[in-house]
Every structure is written in structure tokens, then in C-alpha cells.
Design goal:
The complex is a heterodimer of chains A (about 450) and B (about 290). Chain A is α+β, with helices and mostly antiparallel strands and about 450 residues long. Chain A is built from 14 helices and 13 strands. Chain B is built from seven helices and 19 strands. In chain B, α1 runs antiparallel to α2, α1 packs antiparallel against α7 and α3 runs antiparallel to α4. About 10% of the residues of chain B have low confidence. The chains are: A alpha+beta (about 450), B alpha+beta (about 290).
């Protein structure tokens, strides 16, 4: 599996097969780039010789038969993990509906994994794609402010469910398309709902409590659910379906926006707590390799500061169109007082900040945290910010290498990265100002 | 019992918004000499020390020593409702009925209030009595603003913290007194290019230097320039401070007339903001040291 160790990725000079690669139609999935057949016959899905972060042939082979079963006439009958989706296109009119997997499951018990990004960090990208692309999404178009329809109350019930729910959907037409987004987990074909039937729902009492509290603002509700142990995905579902917030201000929130809203709200609250804690007293370097991505995190003594820098190699998701020569680097930084504007890098900044804040809170220490991510050729599909959140969480659960000096930490970190320090310095605020350390008044305690 | 009345809410606004840049909850201490606050931000990088002397107020009463704590943003929100020319009265457990028993001072105050009420013609005698009666609650901070009409707020006090913050005892090698508006402008000049400001002074020139991605900035003030009241330096001092901390506090108290800048090489900075009233605001900031 590609998760544990990085396959040798050819230098992009001999990477031309991809430049020429054409897009194929694997079961309506327009996103997969076809590697050369001679590579595939040697690899057969086992070694990722093509350099992609997943095997397009295996993913498509496992999805294709399922997709063929889809028809207008028979609709889909199964369990929803529970999973609901609110599309942002055309806002304030949104499309909302449940998602039901095509796979056969005797019972609904193992189905929760379909909408639990929290558990996907240990799975390969193939497996995640196979799960998610087989999720069929029903849609109904509604106004975001109109929570009176029976469809909304059904969705709200689903969003509060604490276990998979029996669901049956009939469609107006054959479901088609698939969605890959930078923010959202991948999802399979979708279609307008003709009829929807949902079985009995057992609701999560924590979410129900917030739902019944019409005086609790959405921000406070998010924090309350988080402190009570509801997963980020669970909170996102509830927020999307309009279950949270002051009773008159509830609305349907597109899933994409609601993910970042939850990441941002929770991490900001955690960072405030962290700021009251003493600083770490050594330099700690964490690293993680997963699916053609390398994450490196440097935790440094000092007051709270956070930076997230991504380096997209040629022929990766967002660096597909260039001449294949340049690495695109983009990042964002916040100082002690946090930030007011939206991060240029987007949602993954907030997801990473959440993972980091959780870690510091567990250590009961504050720190300056620099996170670097290199994305290598082959990672050419957007998979959603969960990928960043869950992999950073997993990375920080691991053991870090400890150093007493910045130089030691930095050279260790750079040893794991392909881009040289000089290049990082150009786009990284903290590395540029690395030499300076913010002192504390208590450092002058002998003079107190 | 505490009662502090001032002709304008401006100094309260400046003090509380300065405090709001470093803490969320603030414990004030009131004695017969005045009201004071001292606190550090959670990371111990910045410290604010404020004294509102009793002479700063038009009318001031405080029996014994009272500690009271507020949520700073709530307090600031209420204070911001006061207009520029509104008088403001901050009190705890102060009521006409109680102060009558306490004697002359309270009596005079009550009379004055009655006169105001009559002048404005907005309140009936009975109503007045009622409003005053509620203020006796010791757990509430009462804020009364009188302008074209009277506003009265009650704010719940929170549990006060007992720990006291010591002041860093540092000797400063450099001392510059300059006009606040020039100081504010100079910080803004540097902020364009950098998040940090380096101050360098040799006794005849004070330089503010910022180095950033887009370029460098250098602002110089010479001894004797307009707006520079005083410049003394024992040797050359050079130190760097974070504009993130500095900028927000300075913005909060920009109605100060002048500022006293004191620091030494690689040591904390102390700013004293000279407010138009008898109010002293000191701001301490730890330096950023190049490793």
C-alpha cells in the first residue's frame, strides 16, 4: 500500500508519459489519467509503478459493475451511514439529500465508515475512492432559508442519527457524474429524488440537545458538540442540515462551507486555551508520508504562531497545466493574535490548524508551529480537506524527533524534504524570520 | 461601595480598549486613591498598568478597597454607547438611600442627580427612586451615561482573581518623549513592510526600522524636531518589537497627547501614554531577540 512508504517517483524530467496522458471515461469518471499499458501489465495494481497515488484500474473496476446496476426504475435501497450532502451551487438555492452506498451490506453496521473521514487515515486512497465513489447522492433543490419542508426535517433527523439508517430512494433519472472536490470527500453519481423513504432513526442525544436549544448560537453549539466528543464530521452534518444555531437564524449550509466553519470555529477556541499555557522547551519534528504526500511539522518554543505551506510539484492536482517545470508553493501564516481574513490556501489551512491545536492542548503547551507539505506527481485528484486534517492528526500522534536547537531541527526536517531550505525561505514567513525569538516579560524575572 | 463620575467617557474607552487587546477578563482595584488595573496577556509578552487617580474624576467615592472583575469585551461594548460629550458614572453598590445614611457626600450627590433629572425633565421623582434602588446590588457594575438623555446599564461582575502582577524593574537607557500622532504614523509607516519594528537611538536621532519581503522602511526623528519633546540616550540602544502587540494597543489609546518611549538594547520596552485627563497608562512589551 502506498500509505506507509513513498514509491520512488521519477524526477519530472522523465515524467513525460503523464504530460501526454489522455483523460479516459472509466464509468463516467472523467478524472482519471490513464497510465501507459506496459506499466500496468507489470504492476497489476500492486506496486503503483505509474506513480499515481491510487490505482485507476482497480478503483474503476470495483465501481464499474456497481454503477451498471443503477437504473431509474429500481432506484436504490440500502443504508445511509448516515450521510447527507448540501451542494453549494446556485446558493441560496441548494441541493440537499442523503447518500446511500451501492455496495451490498447485510446489515447497516459497518456502513458508518463511508462517512467517517476520521477513520480513513489508515486506509489507502484506493479504498477511500472505492467507498466514496460508490455513494449515490439523491438531491432535492431547496432554498437555504426554508427549513419548513418535510424533506428538511427528514434530513435533520438523518444528520442527528447515531447509527446507519435504512433508506430507499427512487430517482427522476439515472444517477450520473461523480464529484471530486478540494474541500469535500469524493462522492459518486447523483440524481434528483423522486421518492425517499427513511427507516427509524435513533438520534445522538448530544446533537439533539443542541437542536432543541433555540437560544444557542451556532458557534457555541459547534463548540459544545466538540467538547462533548461529537466528531468533526458529525458536527458538519448537523450544521449543514440547519440543526444548529439560534432558532431564527438556522439555515441549510453547503457542506463545503460547513466543514471549514467547523474547523475554524473549533480551532480558534482551542488556540485561545493554548495561549494560556507554558511554551514547549525543545524543538520537535514530526513527519508523515502518505499517498504521494509528505507532511513535516516543526514545533518550536515560543508563543502561538502557525504557518502552513504547500508545495505542489508538477502534474499534481493544482499544478497540472504548467509546462511541468515549476513547483508551485503557497502558504499562509498567522501570528499570536490569529487572523481575520480568509487563508489563501483555503480550507486545508483550518483543518491543519485544528489538528495542531488539538495536539498542543493535549501537551498542555503552546508553541510556534510550522507545517510543510510536499505534494508529489501522481497525487492528481482533489480528495477533500479531511485528508489534511486526519493525516496531520495521525502524524502528531506519532513520535517526534527532539532537538535542542533550531539548526538541528531544521536540518533534520530538510533532510526529509526534497525542496531545499533556500526555496522554502522564499515562501515561508517563519523560516525567513526564524532567527528572531519573541521573549516574554517573565524572562526578565530576575529583574522583577 | 464605589462611585466614579467623569465628564467624558473617552478615558474609560481608551483604558478599556487598551486592556481588551491583552486580556479577556480584567480585575480592577479601587481604593480611596483611585482605580487601577495591572495585567499581562496569557503569554506574558505584554503588560498593561493603568491608574485612574481620584483627581481624574469629577466626583469620586470609594470606601475601603474593592476588587471587581469584568468581561472586557462586554464592558467595552457598553462604554462605546457613550457619546463624546456624555458624562459617565461607574458605580458598585452605590445608591441614594444608602449614601444618605453614609452622610454628606452622598447627600450632595443625590441632590445633584435630582437637579439633573429635573433639568432634563425626563424622569419622575418616583421613577428616579426606583432606578437608584436597584443599584445597591454589589454583584453588578452600574454604568450611567448622561447626555441628551440618560442611559443606565448594569453589568454582571465576574469572580475576580487575586494574583497580583509584579512590574518588571528595569532601567532604561533611552528615553524619548514625542507626540502621539507622530508615533502612531511612524508605526503605520513601518507596518506596511514588516511585522517587526527595530528601534535605534543614539541620543540625537531615533530610528524606526522595518525589514520585510517587499522592502525596507526607515523613519527617523531628530532631537529638536517638531513633536519630539525630549530625547536622551545613554549610549546607543537597539531593540526589536512585534508590531502585532504594539500596533493594537497604540490604536486603542490614540487619543493620548504624547507618549514616552523607554527601552534598552534587547530589553523590554515601556510606553507611557499621556492622556488628556489624570490617567496614566503604561504598556510593557518584551523584545524579539535575534538568535
Amino acid at each position: 500500500m502506498p500509505g506507509s512508504c513513498l514509491p520512488v517517483v521519477p524526477d519530472h524530467s522523465n515524467y513525460s508519459p503523464y504530460h501526454q496522458a489522455h483523460r479516459s471515461l472509466h464509468g463516467g469518471l472523467h478524472i482519471i489519467i490513464q497510465p501507459s499499458p506496459s506499466l500496468c501489465t507489470r504492476c497489476r495494481g500492486s506496486r503503483y509503478l505509474c506513480g499515481l497515488a491510487y490505482c485507476p484500474i482497480l478503483v474503476s473496476a470495483s465501481i464499474q459493475p456497481l454503477l451498471e446496476r443503477l437504473d431509474v426504475g429500481n432506484g436504490i435501497d440500502g443504508y445511509t451511514p448516515p450521510c447527507i450532502f448540501v451542494g453549494r451551487r446556485g446558493y441560496p438555492r441548494v441541493s440537499i439529500g442523503p447518500m446511500v452506498p451501492l455496495h451490498d451490506h447485510a446489515s447497516g453496521m459497518s456502513i458508518g465508515i463511508y462517512d467517517s473521514p476520521e477513520e480513513w487515515h489508515s486506509m489507502s486512497l484506493d479504498e477511500v475512492l472505492r467507498l466514496r465513489l460508490a455513494l449515490v447522492r439523491g438531491k432535492v433543490s431547496l432554498h437555504a432559508h426554508d427549513l419548513s419542508s418535510s424533506m428538511v426535517s427528514l434530513m435533520q433527523e438523518l444528520a442527528m442519527a447515531d447509527r446507519p439508517v435504512d433508506a430507499e430512494m427512487l430517482f427522476k433519472h439515472k444517477p450520473s457524474g461523480a464529484s471530486l472536490s478540494e474541500y469535500l470527500p469524493p462522492s459518486g453519481p447523483s440524481a434528483e429524488i423522486e421518492r425517499l423513504r427513511v427507516g427509524n432513526v435513533r438520534v445522538d442525544s448530544r446533537i439533539e440537545h443542541a437542536y432543541n436549544d433555540g437560544d444557542l448560537g451556532a458557534g457555541d453549539a459547534i463548540l459544545q458538540l466538540y467538547t462533548r466528543g461529537v466528531s468533526v464530521t458529525g458536527i458538519v452534518r448537523a450544521l449543514s442540515a440547519g440543526c444548529l444555531g439560534h432558532r431564527r437564524r438556522r439555515r441549510l449550509v453547503p457542506t463545503r462551507w460547513s466543514i471549514t466553519a467547523v474547523d475554524d470555529t473549533v480551532s480558534r477556541a482551542l488556540v485561545e486555551q493554548v495561549k494560556g499555557m507554558p511554551s514547549v522547551d525543545e524543538y520537535i519534528v514530526y513527519a508523515r508520508d502518505v499517498s504521494m504526500n509528505r507532511f513535516v511539522c516543526i514545533v518550536m518554543p515560543g508563543t502561538w504562531e502557525f504557518e502552513w505551506v504547500e508545495a505542489w510539484f508538477p502534474y499534481t492536482t493544482w499544478n497540472m497545466l504548467g509546462d511541468g517545470a515549476g513547483i508551485e508553493m503557497v502558504g499562509d501564516h498567522e501570528g499570536y493574535r490569529g487572523r481575520k481574513d480568509y487563508a489563501i490556501v483555503g480550507g486545508c489551512y483550518y483543518s491543519a490548524r485544528l489538528a495542531v491545536a488539538e495536539h498542543l492542548l493535549a501537551l498542555r503547551r503552546q508553541a510556534r508551529v510550522l507545517m510543510l507539505r510536499e505534494i508529489y506527481p501522481g497525487f492528481n485528484i482533489p480528495v477533500g480537506v479531511w485528508f489534511v486534517r486526519e493525516n496531520v492528526r495521525a502524524m502528531l500522534r506519532g513520535r517526534g524527533a527532539r532537538f535542542s536547537s533550531m539548526d538541528g531541527a531544521l536540518s533534520h526536517a530538510m533532510g526529509m524534504l526534497r525542496i531545499p531550505l533556500r526555496r522554502w525561505r522564499e515562501s515561508c514567513h517563519m523560516l525567513r524570520y526564524m532567527r528572531g525569538v519573541q521573549m516574554r516579560l517573565s524572562d526578565y524575572a530576575e529583574q522583577f | 461601595m464605589l462611585m466614579a463620575k467623569s465628564r467624558s467617557a473617552e478615558e474609560w474607552k481608551a483604558v478599556v480598549s487598551a486592556i481588551s487587546t491583552i486580556v479577556e477578563e480584567a480585575t480592577f482595584e479601587a481604593t480611596s486613591e483611585g482605580i487601577s488595573f495591572r495585567g499581562m496577556d496569557p503569554s506574558h509578552v505584554a503588560l498593561i498598568d493603568v491608574q485612574l487617580l481620584n483627581s481624574a474624576f469629577e466626583h469620586y467615592m470609594c470606601d475601603g478597597s474593592i476588587r471587581f472583575a469584568v468581561r472586557v469585551d462586554e464592558f467595552l461594548k457598553l462604554l462605546k454607547r457613550a457619546g463624546k460629550d456624555d458624562s459617565i458614572e461607574i458605580s458598585i453598590g452605590y445608591a441614594g438611600t444608602e449614601s444618605r445614611r453614609k452622610g454628606e457626600v452622598g447627600e450632595r450627590e443625590r441632590e445633584r442627580e435630582e437637579v439633573e433629572a429635573v433639568e432634563e425633565g425626563s424622569m419622575e421623582e418616583g421613577e428616579k427612586g426606583e432606578t437608584v434602588a436597584i443599584t445597591t446590588d454589589e454583584s453588578m457594575l452600574s454604568i450611567k451615561m448622561v447626555g441628551k438623555y440618560t442611559r443606565q446599564y448594569k453589568m454582571r461582575l465576574i469572580e475576580s482573581t487575586s494574583s497580583s502582577t509584579p512590574l518588571p524593574k528595569i532601567t532604561f537607557n533611552t528615553r524619548v518623549v514625542m507626540s502621539m500622532s507622530q508615533f502612531v504614523e511612524a508605526l503605520k509607516d513601518v507596518e506596511i513592510v514588516s511585522d517587526y519594528i527595530t528601534m535605534r537611538c543614539d541620543g540625537s536621532t531615533l530610528q524606526f526600522i522595518g525589514k520585510g519581503d517587499s522592502g525596507d522602511a526607515m523613519i527617523a526623528f531628530n532631537k529638536g524636531d517638531e513633536g519630539v519633546e525630549e530625547m536622551i540616550s545613554n549610549g546607543e540602544s537597539s531593540a526589536t518589537y512585534s508590531l502585532e502587540y504594539l500596533g493594537s494597543v497604540v490604536k486603542a489609546v490614540d487619543n493620548a497627547e504624547s507618549v514616552v518611549v523607554e527601552y534598552s538594547t534587547r530589553m523590554p520596552l515601556r510606553l507611557e501614554f499621556k492622556m488628556p485627563y489624570m490617567c496614566r497608562i503604561y504598556f510593557y512589551l518584551a523584545p524579539r531577540v535575534e538568535g
